[in-house]
Amino acid sequence: MSSSDAPRFLLTNDDGIDSPGFRALYDALSELGEVVAVAPADDQSAVGRKLSGRVEVREHELGYAIVGTPADCAIAGLESLCPDVDMVVAGCNKGANIGAYVLGRSGTVSAAVEAAFFGVPAMAVSLYVPGGSGDDWRSKASDPSDYRAAAEATRYLAEHAEDAGVFDEADYLNVNAPWGGEQEPTGMEVTRPSTLYDMTAERDGDHVNLIDRTWDRMLTGDIPDPVGTDRRAVVEGRISVSPLTAPHTTRHHDALDGLADEYEPREA
Questions:
Q1: What's the CA gap between 136 and 247, in Å, rounded?
Q2: Is 14 annotated as a binding residue?
Q3: Is the pTM of the predicted complex or chain greater than 0.70?
Q4: Which of 113, 11, 116 lies closest to 65, judged by CA?
Q5: Treating both helix axes as pointing N-terminal to C-terminal, what angle do 20-30 and 148-160 enclose, rounded to 10 degrees?
C-alpha cells in the first residue's frame, strides 16, 4: 500500500454482513484505512461464483448489504458502489476454506476470485473451527474476539503484501487461520492447496446424505497431507497463506494434441 494515502478496502464475505467474523475484519482493517462493506444481507455460504444479475442494495451502518451472492457483491462494489478501492478482502469465514476441491465451492474465495479478474488485489480469509462433519462447530466462534488471530494476520498482509510485490505473482491470497480457544497460532506458512478429497454419499430412503469426511480426519489428525499444504499447516496450528491465480491453468500434452490432430468431423 502507498504510504502517502490511507488505503481503501472493499470488505465482503459469504456468512452475511452481520456475522462476527465480518465484524472482526472490519475493525482490524479500519486500523489501516477506510473500509466499505459490500456484503450479503444473509448467509450465502457455499454458493461459489453464482451471479444474480440484478440485486437489491440496502444501506447498512458499515456500508451496503446486498441481497445477493459474494460474487454479486464484488462486482457491484468494484463497478458501482466503491470502484476506487485498493484491495478486496473476503471474510472472515466461519469454517476453513482449504483444499483444492473447496476453492470453487466457497463464496468467500469466489469473491476474491471475482476481484482478481478485475485486476484488484484480493484476499479470502477463513477460520478453521474444529468440530468434525457434524454441527458442533456451529456453536463455536460466535464472537468477533474469536477471530483475533485471523484478523491480525489479515491486517498484517493487507498492510505489507502489495508493497512487498506479492501481487506481482499472485492474483489473490487464500488465508486460513486455526482456532484453538486460548492457543495462539505458532506462525504463518506459505502453502499450496491440499489435494485430499474424501467426499462420500450415503442413501437414506428417499434422500442421499453427502458427507465430507475430511473434517473428521482433521479432528483426529488422520490426514495424509504433506508439509507445505494448507490443511497440514492449519491442523498443526499455523496460519496458512496460499498465493493463487484466478484463471484456470492449461497444460498441453501430447496425448490430447494427438487426438485433436486426428479428429475428422463427420459429413452432414
A1: 36
A2: yes
A3: yes
A4: 11
A5: 40
Nearest CA to 141 out of 124, 126, 156, 153 is that of: 126
Q: 500500500: which residue's cell?
A: 1
β-bridge partners, 240 = 176, 189
Is 93 annotated in a binding site? The answer is yes
**Residue 142 marked as a ligand binder:** no
- The identity of residue 138, as a single letter, is R
> If you average pLDDT over every residue of the chain, what do you get?
93
Band of the pLDDT at 138, cuts 50, 70, 90?
confident
Closest CA to 75 of 103, 46, 50: 50
Domains with residue ranges and CATH for the chain = 8-196+225-262 (3.40.1210.10)
Q: List the beta bridge partners of residue 210.
A: 201
Q: N- to C-terminal Cα distance for the chain? A: 59
Alpha helices in the chain (DSSP H): 20-30, 70-76, 107-117, 148-160, 214-220, 230-235, 254-262
pLDDT at 181: 63
pLDDT per residue as tens digits for the range 43-62: 999 999 999 999 999 999 99
